[in-house]
Amino acid sequence: MAFPISYMFFLLTLILGSAISISSSSWFGGWIGLELNMMSFIPLITLKMNSYFSEAALKYFLIQALGSALFIYASCVSISLTHLMFIFTLFALLLKLAAAPFHFWFPQVAEGLHWPQMFILSTIQKLAPMILISYLTVNVILTKMIMISAILSALVGAWGGLNLTLLRKILAFSSINHMSWMLMAISISDTFWLSYFFFYSFISLSVMMTFFKIQAFSLSTIIQSSQTSNFFPLLLSVNMFSLGGLPPFTGFVPKWILIQIMVNLNLFFTLFFLLTSALITLYFYLRMTIPFLLMSSPTMNFNTKTMQLTPTSTLLLIFTSFNLYGILLPVYSLLI
């Protein structure tokens, strides 16, 4: 799939919008960056015009416009109602993040996106709102509300992904579930949530690149591809296990660190919901990978006739190798 020059232009302005929000010293500057970010992402959605992409772009615009309106309304609240102003600001940012209970739009929009746009929506588009939310944790009431949203996101992301066969919806609910861990990290730590975010971004990139390479949008597509090649199913299995946080893959590392932090802070009640949701999400990741591993060719044939290492395949191998770094976790634990 060749990307036109306009795609790169809007991608750069999208990153610029995030940078403006992150570096801004005022809420107005943060809002300007979010608006530039939104208006740059909509043309990326409609890069290839059809009814699905147009519908996704319209839904995304309406939801983000609602969040922006709520953001502006919060700034108009009387200065004597400071708590109410910041509560509305938090709601606006949670809506833009698709964190529960404002998650309803995310799976529907994700279903109308292609894989590159799906990756941007799940990662880059969430960076600026999360940084703005981290500024609100100085207020105890808002911190408690962020924790409640984290618990709800964990439950919604886990139960919503069950019994689904469409890959983009599954990864949408997976993103909501991972959002719960990042929101919890924001509420209890100043900087660790950024580490979790970058771990999640790299792992998501490896998963979505694999889906993009084999043009998979449902479980049946993956099963069909596993019958002709063992290469991509094996890569996908490693990537999905890492995304689910299965030890000893890399995706387990940020969760393990956050679990230690929460235990030290005696946040056992919240940790119970996060761990329960992690087990449920791991179940539907395993449900995705086990069938096509069992149905793949019994002879693990990796000769050059069945597998040609194109630049894309080589890049996939590099990103997949990142998901194996978690094997070094015991060594890391001995050093600290």
TrEMBL record:
Domain of life: Eukaryota
Domain NADH:quinone oxidoreductase/Mrp antiporter transmembrane: 81-281
Gene Ontology biological process: mitochondrial electron transport, NADH to ubiquinone
Transmembrane domains' residue ranges: 61-80, 86-106, 118-142, 148-171, 192-212, 232-253, 265-286, 315-335
Keywords: Electron transport, Membrane, Mitochondrion, Mitochondrion inner membrane, NAD, Respiratory chain, Signal, Translocase, Transmembrane, Transmembrane helix, Transport, Ubiquinone
Bilayer topology term: Multi-pass membrane protein
Cellular location(s): Mitochondrion inner membrane
Family according to the record: Belongs to the complex I subunit 2 family.
Protein name, UniProt field: NADH-ubiquinone oxidoreductase chain 2
Organism: Macrophthalmus japonicus
